[in-house]
Amino acid sequence: xxxxxxxxxxxxxxxxxxxxxxxxLQLHFQNCKTILFIPYARPGGISHEEYxxxxxxxxxxxxxxVIGIHEFENAPQAIKNAEGIFTGGGNTFVLVSxxxxxxxxxxxxxTIKNGTPYLGxxxxxxxxxxxxxxxxxxxxxxxxxxxxxxxxxxxxxPHYLDPDTSSSHMGETRETRIKxxxxxxxxxxxGLREGSWxxxxxxxxxxxxxxxxxxxSQNQIPTxxxxxxxxxxxx
Amino acid sequence: xxxxxxxxxxxxxxxxxxxxxxxxLQLHFQNCKTILFIPYARPGGISHEEYxxxxxxxxxxxxxxVIGIHEFENAPQAIKNAEGIFTGGGNTFVLVSxxxxxxxxxxxxxTIKNGTPYLGxxxxxxxxxxxxxxxxxxxxxxxxxxxxxxxxxxxxxPHYLDPDTSSSHMGETRETRIKxxxxxxxxxxxGLREGSWxxxxxxxxxxxxxxxxxxxSQNQIPTxxxxxxxxxxxx
Lengths: 235, 235
Fold this sequence. Notes:
The structure is a homodimer.
Chain A lengths: L2 E5 L14 H7 L5 E5 L9 H13 L4 E4 L6 H7 L3 E3 L4 H10 L3 H9 L4 E4 L1 H4 L28 E3 L16 H8 L7 E3 L5 E5 L2 E5 L4 E4 L6 E3 L10
GO molecular function, one term (chains A, B): serine-type peptidase activity
Organism (chains A, B): Flavobacterium glaciei
Protein name (chains A, B): Dipeptidase E
């Protein structure tokens, strides 16, 4: 049975890393002593070692040890053996490229579908959808495919931002970009604001956190979904 | 001799399409009766016909006829025969995919290098760099390559936005994204604010418009470049 948390962001303004999620994570990873961390998204281009070191203090607060996937010789085997898995944010193009390069995209998807507890934040959440095509990130490397884990039957836009109506900037708003996605793709897209997350328990997907989320479906007017809404109907 | 205008945006706030550039365009396209328009970037997913219709009024003001490349059976030949070429904005992934699909990426680069006057705005400017990897757009389609026209020896970030210091949003700033690009790539990136453009005459690249532009080079602190600066040293 799937057991997944998919968060818009790792960190809220003026808070520590994962601080707002720690009560959830304590429950989510209650049966894990050790978390396997996937640092492939390398925020700001930092190394896997640096990134893994950066997240350890948050998990130490809930008494979890963290091991980076780069510390294992056999990455697919590390995933199969993991008690719990966390993929952090950074650049989604880098993350997806590394998942393919290290031959773990498929085994990661299977392992999570079989019930290993998973946490994703930002880029690590993006990959939970069908494709990474609604990321906000720059294409700084060329991945072999945009296909991702497919843990939920729609796509995500983490760090969803409402249009700034006071701005004179002519670049596209987030909503405009997602509408463009729907000119070529029929997959629904959920705009997940910072502070929101999805809880996936088996086939039940529930919106969590204090905010509404914005659902974009092809050829339909976007709708705001209340927290605690069961999203399992979206496909 | 190259004769190119590379603009951050087609449109400034509260202005008509291309309005701020019309005096430049009158000179730039002075020897052209007809402009070949490349509508492949399809802003908002509009059709090639709609997009071409949308830009005609601006060019009518300087007495230019506009023909869309989709109106020709042989797209590469249309480029070779063009008096002047304009590629409009939209989604850079869609634009680059279509340039490859229609087999015109190489011939477009060669034709412009041989002197056919070219105007790019937004996505149509992005493709003037070495790669499209510093676009702001969503990867809504999967292009066969990120390599672009290479008309200038660096990359562009059109619609460059300064960090909003009042924002509590935790998504990456434009500067952070470009720094991440430089964790994997050595190509310099010029952040071109709305209202700025580059004029390329042969090998001389000059910053134009009322604003400064922000230059990002790998492992260096970004610098602000004044308008009218000769940028030919950047490589």
